[in-house]
Specification:
176 residues; alpha+beta; 2 domains; 6-stranded antiparallel sheet
Length: 176
């Protein structure tokens, strides 16, 4: 008569473990979904971009506009993508000291004018670097690929407005 009790106890243990496994799986899915849906603040996103690309932002700069979005790219093996747009304003003095250091990391694509990017303008109505009257805009960029396959491209479009500089920041991070 001991055998049926042991079988019943084993069966109850297996059912309990299966129930725990289902609950743990559901909890893990909820955590991962929550992480993907988490939207960063402008300070967090700019700090992450700064760390990823090894460039600091100008001192005394103010973030006047910001947006971030995530998506999957089916045509790119369903890669996970995060794009960030920000508009920073800083004084000419802060910009000058920052620029001399930043160009050690960032590549200058030459003075010119910003191209119109309908996709980015559709995401953020304030993304209008192409409307600047500054004909000597500074275009800076940096690309990196990590051994894990994560890649990122940082593009900065900088225009002058009197005694201030406006820095349009676009960062695209792709994770396989």
């Amino acid at each position: 008569m001991h055998v049926p009790k042991i079988k019943g106890a084993i069966r109850a243990s297996v059912v309990a473990l299966a129930g725990c496994a289902v609950l743990l799986t559901l909890a893990l899915i909820a955590i991962l979904r929550g992480r993907n849906d988490t939207i960063m603040s402008s300070e967090e996103a700019l700090a992450a971009i700064s760390s990823l690309h090894g460039v600091a932002w100008p001192t005394n700069s103010a973030t006047t506009a910001f947006t971030i979005w995530r998506y999957r790219a089916e045509q790119d093996r369903n890669s996970r993508n995060t794009e960030t747009l920000a508009r920073l304003e800083t004084s000419d003095d802060s910009f000058s000291s920052w620029y001399s250091i930043a160009t050690n990391v960032l590549s200058e694509d030459g003075p010119g004018s910003a191209p119109y990017d309908a996709r980015l303008s559709a995401k953020a109505k304030w993304w209008v670097p192409h409307e600047s009257s500054d004909t000597n805009m500074i275009l800076l960029s940096h690309e990196m690929i990590q051994p894990t396959g994560v890649s990122s491209k940082l593009s900065l479009i900088i225009s002058a407005t009197g005694t201030n500089r406006i820095i349009y920041v676009h960062c695209h991070v792709r994770q396989p």
